[in-house]
Amino acid sequence: MFNHQYNMHSVDTSSAEAPAAGKYTVVVDVVTDKISRTSGKDMLELKLKIVDAEDEANKKFRGRSLYYYIVDDQYADQKIYDVFSACGKPIPNQITGNLFTNLTGKVMVKQESYNGEKRATVNYWIRLAPGEAAPAPAETKNPADDLAF
Fold first, then answer.
1. C-alpha dihedral, 37 to 114 to 103 to 41, nearest 10°
2. 40-50 per-position pLDDT tens digit
3. pLDDT (average), residues 88-105
4. CA atoms within 13 A on the CB side of 118
5. 104-114 and 22-35 beta bridge pairing
6. End-to-end distance of the chain based on CA atoms, in angstroms?
7. pLDDT tens per residue, range 19-44
8. Residue 77 Cα distances to 42, 83, 140, angstroms
């Protein structure tokens, strides 16, 4: 039986336009353990919230979500290294999903076509230069906060 408490603050009422290609500061908002549909292997789904954009025109995408996936395969260690290096955090030996929550870093986003529609995907994480501090998360505003009922 579906019994859901509606929360207008969790709704993205902005345009369905996919975030444009460019550099974004993101925070890992939600981490979900899943099974990859294509390989059947364990996987982490990282829901990233855009908190800032390098290009002024892309700042309109603040608060929007992107997704990044780490499948437990031959690429997992590299992806883990990339995320932690971009966020300025040491990499623990044992990796669990809760280690990613609230990490903040920069990503390069690309747009690609999927089933005839544009979508934004994380092309790669931008690693910090030696001595560079990780970006602090900026305040994000949910467009639904402006709605009056």
1. 10
2. 999 999 999 99
3. 94
4. 10
5. antiparallel
6. 28
7. 999 999 999 999 999 999 999 999 99
8. 14, 10, 30
Distance CA 14, CA 8 (A): 13
pLDDT value for 12: 61
CATH class in words for 16-128: mainly beta
Q: Where are the domains of the chain?
A: 16-128
Position 116 pLDDT exceeds 80: yes
DSSP 3-18: -----GGG---S--PP
41 residue type, one letter: K
Q: Is the Cβ–Cβ distance between 44 and 70 less than 8 Å?
A: yes
Confidence (pTM): 0.80
Question: 108: closest CA among 86, 126, 120?
Answer: 126
CB 108 within 8 A of CB 89: no
Whole-angstrom Cα distance, residue 98 to residue 129?
25
